[in-house]
Amino acid sequence: MANKAITSRDVDFAKWYTDVVMAAHLCDYSSVKGCTIFEPNGYAIWEKMQKILDDMFRKTGHKNVYLPLFIPESLMRKEGELINGFAPEVAWVTHGGAKELEERLCVRPTSETLFSDYYSQKVKSYRDLPVKYNQWANVVRWEKETRPFLRSREFLWQEGHTVHATAEEAEAETLQMLNVYKDFFENYLAIPVMTGRKTEKEKFAGAEYTLTVEALMYNGVALQSSTSHYFGQKFSKAYNIQFLNKNNELEYAYQTSWGTTTRMIGALIMVHSDDDGLVLPPKIAPTKVAIIPIKDDEKVKAKIEEIYNKLNEAGIDCYIDNTDKSAGFKFAEAEVNGIPVRIEVGPRDLENGQITVARRDTKEKFQVSIDEDIVAYTNNLMETMQKDMFNKALERKNKMTYECHNLSEVEDIINNHPGFIKAMWCGDEACELRMKEIRGTKSRCILNGEKIDDKCIVCGKEASKLVLWGIQY
Amino acid sequence: MANKAITSRDVDFAKWYTDVVMAAHLCDYSSVKGCTIFEPNGYAIWEKMQKILDDMFRKTGHKNVYLPLFIPESLMRKEGELINGFAPEVAWVTHGGAKELEERLCVRPTSETLFSDYYSQKVKSYRDLPVKYNQWANVVRWEKETRPFLRSREFLWQEGHTVHATAEEAEAETLQMLNVYKDFFENYLAIPVMTGRKTEKEKFAGAEYTLTVEALMYNGVALQSSTSHYFGQKFSKAYNIQFLNKNNELEYAYQTSWGTTTRMIGALIMVHSDDDGLVLPPKIAPTKVAIIPIKDDEKVKAKIEEIYNKLNEAGIDCYIDNTDKSAGFKFAEAEVNGIPVRIEVGPRDLENGQITVARRDTKEKFQVSIDEDIVAYTNNLMETMQKDMFNKALERKNKMTYECHNLSEVEDIINNHPGFIKAMWCGDEACELRMKEIRGTKSRCILNGEKIDDKCIVCGKEASKLVLWGIQY
Description:
- Two copies of one chain form a homodimer.
- Chain A is α+β, with helices and mostly antiparallel strands.
- Chain A has three domains: 13-272, BirA Bifunctional Protein, domain 2; 287-383, Rossmann fold; 401-470, Translation Initiation Factor IF3, CATH 3.30.110.
- Chain A contains 14 helices and 23 strands.
- In chain A, the strands form six sheets. A seven-stranded mixed beta sheet of chain A has the order 3-7-8-14-11-10-9, with helices on both faces.
- In chain A, helix 13 (407-416) links the parallel strand 20 and strand 21 (420-425).
- The radius of gyration of chain A is 25 Å and the shape is globular.
- The two termini of chain A are 30 Å apart.
- In chain A, 51% of the residues are buried.
- The interface between A and B is large, with 53 and 53 residues.
- Strand 5 (91-96) of chain A pairs antiparallel with strand 5 (91-96) of chain B, so a sheet runs across the interface.
């Protein structure tokens, strides 16, 4: 019954992923090397994500702004660590029309420099603080490989940039936004996540520290899914963001930034989808219900319109598939596109006073009486699906999270059945590099307050940090 | 009483415009030459515009997509007229990281080329048509001057790109989208517009013809506000978009594109605002009501919260100004920011069973009984304001639209009291160029089915076209 255009995910996961992306018309390659096209089905998921996250950002007191696409090289170079981190992967504009520019401009890979420059003009006194802005934008990083949603030279994201009068307030903001992302992943995307602080080696260039949301894909590979950075005064010193504090003294401000990208669509696919195509948690699905007539028949048509009108009035996005394709073809199309609920109406069913409702995630079909309140039924079903999808992903993640006490255990897991690895670490970068030799196993984050051993898994020296490790996208 | 930070618009219109933009915190200059920063108040207006237009686009059957920021030079060059039109004003990316690119990439000034390239892959049969996509994006044109919202090297816009099986359908789409823009301008922005076809000289590079929405600013200068282009088969031939038609013959497809930009924010300012700052039609104002306590008092506080809760529950965006500024300062701030309705609550008013409601556009103040239904009152007032603002702008536009029968009349108007000029034209480009000598007077559009004379205003030869002329931004 599996979709013929889609390779099985247990046979070739990478191929399966691309097949799902193409079959569900989420994304396409373009003639521009390294850049992809967001097709309507894929872009609609991004818009849904934007809407939900944007509301969460507003509720936590943030406002949207829009800053320039270009950054003059000299401005970019003011904060040394940032430019060192990004220099190998920025695109440079050197000409405007026929004229060579006096100073070349980089296409923003991220906007800390521009926001800091702007804030240096804007922030004068503690009364101006906090400033809590967010930006929805495209960014460019000159990647060598291209994988739809996961890696491309241009991608879409949001970047929050805030300024505070105290370190405590900025650190609270950093943690708050991490929790906003965690909430979004778990309660909307139905993806359980692990959170914690990145090691020095893995943190964002220019940050004091980076908090991260890490998710585990179906194939055991980890995906860094959102990050929230505490900058302390690093950027405020480089860009001269000073304010008069309550004691009337000039002080450098405290900053944060936090972001998440269209990569989340990749996570959605790799956690929930199957060999029949896309599977979406109802809360994030742009279209919730497909209504499909089994036969062209007056009674069927009337019933279908009645259902459509009821769902539509209740604000449940749905469509009637009235094309001249076969019913089986329509079912498969709704499946591959990840429509959570399918309602089938046929003349025989109607004679028995029934319609058929199918859920996408489990493929279960239910006979439902035509007297049932279809709006309530659909809403209940979608709520159950949302919970079930999260629990299924949580169970998988728990089963694929392993505690390791020595390197051969790590090697066994990474080579045979990858997943999250919990292991103690002494804090030494050399030990991180040794782990990386095991097929690129990297520290994902330091887990707070947990401990499974007293010694570093690599060097055997005393260790107080429990680290989550994994191979990554 | 006028805001001290704002030059009078009758004294220096250009300065007044920039003063309003800055005083209302709509936009700021950036350290990136030619690029501006959309501050929260300005960006919120853009988001409101996006939301309304996006719904209108969906209702007319369009879907959103996102195509790359970059266009390879060779792809850009396939349609000769387009590249000739844009070559002097595109930005070129020549390096990715440290490496020089094999082919330089232009930062999109518009995306006909990319959409056409994409459609050439996607469209195979008449069954695939129509394709009706829209994109919200940033675009770059290497302008020499910078004026907030009106002219900058990067701006935000939407661009619709559609493909059809017949010329008739594509032309109907071109006209439909023109009317969507007209509807949006008149019924949301409260800006009366003139619409018609551009002359050959003024049409979009690469189009068969261009339809345009033209608005008149307070100072009599015309603003091209949205355009809708019919391409016929020009791009489909250059990019090979062929489909099998119903007769099973290969045919080149018919295309349109249409777009509008952040420039609309400039139009809003230049049509409605005054010497006290921004004035926004209620339907486009992100925040509708400012609630201001005259005094810090328990009864006042209780009343203000009651009003806030009622408005908020009714979905009317509002805020309470509880800062420690004076009431007068708060009034001025709500005024400069263009909040349509201001509700003032003071202890003396309350003793008399009243509150005060002020409308931003006319500055009128009303004593309103505390027993009045404040939600209904506010909604009614906003409806009245919306209508009044449109009518006021319409009256001004009509008063400033002149019929001219000879060039000295044109000169008199342009030199002394500019506005829209209606005059007959023979169709000859030489006559257009002669008009341009009068302080840059350009044809705005050809008006349909009207006629005020038999002869061309310039050459005196027979003329059947009534043209709208004006000086422009």
